[in-house]
Amino acid sequence: MTEKITIAIDGFSSTGKSTIAKLIAKKYNYVYVDTGAMYRAVSLYAKNNDFVNQNSIDKEGLIASLENITITFKFNEALGFAEVFLNDKNVEKEIRTLEVSQLVSKVAAISEVRKKLVAEQQEMGKNGGVVMDGRDIGTVVFPDADLKLFMTASADKRATRRYKELIDRGDKVLYEDILFNVQERDRIDSTREDSPLMKADDAIEFDNSDMGINEQFERICTLIDNKLA
User: Which residue from 7, 168, 184, 223 has the fewest beta carbons nearer than 10 Å?
Assistant: First the structure.
């Protein structure tokens, strides 16, 4: 086994994939890539340029504009993680809103968008020493990843976590809207034609409905240490 491995974390929305991935990256000094943030950034671009709203999407218009989209990650030492930049503008907060959450699955279902971002993700992780989370990391982006995890939890538990996160941030949202968004994203992500959300055959499933972050982290670190041994 190489000194640094490739770790793929897939799963449903709001299962804490990014939180776990950040902790792993920090502990093992790996590069962390939040692929969901990349799709959110494209969705923000599409929203701001009137290519998508809750009722419709101009696929051809967005596809024609993909060459105008540049997504980068810049590490923020004060925060301890890399923030997302869309065309050199920090959009870390903008991409986390419920409005963008309601659009991202529609945008992510477009094959041309996925092709562009998958190529960028594969380039970021080609040398190993990377932990990447998303929907299709273990099945499409890195099918040969050394360790694959698949995170799941009940829709109610995930909606409650997301609701608390947004309320703590000061957003005015209704729990019912969050639950609907979680369920709708599950439906779209799992049934889309291109790279649907699914557990890789060799992925280890983690149902964290009743599991705290510390317990998850400890269990996953044991798996990583075994791979590195």
Answer: 168
